[in-house]
């Protein structure tokens, strides 16, 4: 298991996927930092005419925007780095010498999962903290007011997103081709995010059908629920009576419950166990 995990990490590093993504993410952080800095300066100049609610709205929008695109980047990396982790080995027949050794298919799947999840978790921590530090150091009057507890809670939910994506990607990779796995995962991800926005709009206009659509998409693929819960951890506070009004586009009117987070954990465990079962009985 650990040998496969180490091999997985070496393969990804050898292909320089993470090196390219690292430099592209660094460029993203620079652009985000420049934008945050000048937005903060502009806010300082207009501070006398800008109301408290407007300031709170803009501060959370700046921070939320950075986290939204960071989540998008991390999710895409999780999908593209894991959809072919099993299927490509089968298609190229490189899996034969691996499984001819005293190595169970169970160990192979879990080794892939550990290697991919470990790298993506480290990347997620780096990108999340990068966005947060840029916002706090360069935001000026527009920096979001968050506590260390809020940051740690949100960070845990942030890195859970790519881990869940890895488990589902491995499930498809164990059964179908890399191309089909990638298409299905991208469609599920897009449907989840769109369903989340529909649910938030439905909660605003009190439309039950729209709310139910969001709930169903969350049950089918709960990635958007993790992002919404993360924003609640960061922006919603009992001592801030206008926190909802300040959340804006990246906030959540209909907050996912703790039961939904438990469901997401269970979702990932079931997906991983199903992958092991499916790969174990597949005729290679």
UniProtKB/TrEMBL annotation:
Keywords assigned by UniProt, alphabetized: Membrane, Transmembrane, Transmembrane helix
Transmembrane segments annotated in the record for this chain: 17-40, 60-86, 106-131, 151-172, 179-197, 260-279
Name of protein: ABC transporter permease
Species this protein is from: Salinithrix halophila
């Amino acid at each position: 298991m650990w040998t496969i995990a180490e091999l997985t990490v070496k393969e990804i590093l050898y292909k320089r996927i993470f090196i390219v993504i690292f430099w592209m993410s660094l460029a993203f952080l620079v652009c985000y930092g420049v934008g945050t800095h000048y937005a903060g300066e502009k806010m300082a100049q207009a501070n006398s005419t800008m109301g408290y609610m407007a300031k709170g709205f803009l501060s959370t929008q700046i921070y939320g925007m950075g986290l939204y695109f960071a989540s998008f980047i991390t999710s895409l990396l999780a999908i593209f780095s894991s959809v072919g982790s099993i299927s490509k080995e089968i298609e190229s027949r490189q899996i034969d010498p691996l499984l001819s050794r005293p190595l169970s298919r169970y160990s192979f799947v879990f080794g892939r999962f550990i290697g991919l999840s470990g790298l993506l978790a480290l990347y997620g921590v780096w990108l999340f903290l990068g966005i947060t530090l840029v916002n706090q150091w360069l935001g000026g009057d527009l920096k979001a007011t968050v506590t260390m507890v809020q940051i740690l809670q949100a960070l845990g939910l942030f890195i859970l997103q790519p881990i869940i994506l890895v488990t589902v990607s491995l499930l498809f990779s164990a059964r179908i081709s890399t191309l089909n796995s990638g298409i299905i995962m991208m469609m599920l991800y897009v449907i989840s995010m769109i369903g989340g926005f529909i649910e938030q709009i439905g909660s605003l206009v009190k439309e039950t059908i729209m709310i139910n659509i969001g709930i169903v998409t969350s049950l089918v693929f709960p990635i958007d629920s993790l992002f919404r819960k993360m924003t609640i951890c960061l922006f919603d506070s009992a001592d801030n009576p206008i926190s909802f009004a300040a959340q804006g586009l990246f906030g959540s009117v209909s907050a996912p419950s703790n039961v939904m987070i438990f469901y997401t954990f269970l979702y990932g465990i079931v997906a991983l166990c199903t992958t092991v079962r499916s790969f174990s009985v597949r005729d290679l």
